[in-house]
Amino acid sequence: MRFSLAALALANAVTVLAAPQVDPGRFSCGAPEPSAEHVAISQAFAKDEAMAIANGTVTKRAVTTIDVYFHVVASSTAASGGYLSDALLNAQLDALNAAYAPHQYQFVLKGIDRTVNAAWAVDGNGNELTMKKALRKGTYRSLNVYYLKDMGSNLGYCYFPTTATAGSTTYIRDGCTVLYSTVPGGTLANYNKGHTTTHEVGHWLGLYHTFQGGCTGSGDSVSDTPAQASASSGCPVGRDSCPSQAGVDPIHNYMDYSYDTCYEEFTPGQKARMDSYWAAYRAGK
Ligand SMILES: [Ca+2]
Ligand SMILES: [Zn+2]
């Protein structure tokens, strides 16, 4: 992860003063570093998933349908203020569905709302919970995505599934915050095919970055994503940042940091992990 939660808060505190622009050459995700406890849960899932494969007892799932609420939080009603149109948001939904359809996840758009609030439209200045208290819809199995005008140096962040009591801070905070210009047809070059949202929703479904943990140890706790020393940038075909480990870097994986046009897949192991987290933490909630 590029940012710990504390570092993220600090970076964003600086953002308020300096307002650095996103480096268009670089993807950057602000999802929090998974806790040791969360990694232990992923490791336990990994064991169960491997055993199910070995025993031939993998549960065949029907399509999982996920209700989605898109919240546009803009600084003005101008397109340049982040005021996304229905057409752009529908294109975003299509991109998300195209990425997840091979893994039996379907996203159904339940609502779009738009808020013009210059303070809320800038991430990291202490308004996250207030904004989400006002806007969040559905339950813990519903996906809420907040499209903001200004995310500082990040393109997005999202929270991992965990135990969350309705009404708690953890519950209210749940969801994804994404830079408005990353939607298909958006203005952010190289990252405007909608897959920042695809990447962030991967976190929401329990996935870590493919470069989590670097070359050694349990990495991202998924056995079929090759170990990776650090995030990729662009589309570096053949990159092999852990030469002593099997496989080249998974640069085409949605959980790396590649260009949108370079992203192609989740692995069967990641699909199994999303299913494990969904069943344990979000289904029926
Ligand atoms: Ca791995
Ligand atoms: Zn990420």
Automatic annotation (TrEMBL):
CDD domains: ZnMc_pappalysin_like (cd04275)
GO biological process, one term: proteolysis
Its job: Secreted metalloproteinase that allows assimilation of proteinaceous substrates.
Source domain of life: Eukaryota
Family: Belongs to the peptidase M43B family.
Domain (Peptidase M43 pregnancy-associated plasma-A) ranges: 143-276
Keyword line: Disulfide bond, Hydrolase, Metal-binding, Metalloprotease, Protease, Signal, Zinc
Protein name, entry field: Metalloprotease MEP1-like protein
Gene Ontology MF term list: metal ion binding; metallopeptidase activity
Keyword Signal found: yes
Signal peptide positions (record): 1-18
Pfam families recorded: Peptidase_M43
InterPro entries: MetalloPept_cat_dom_sf, Peptidase_M43
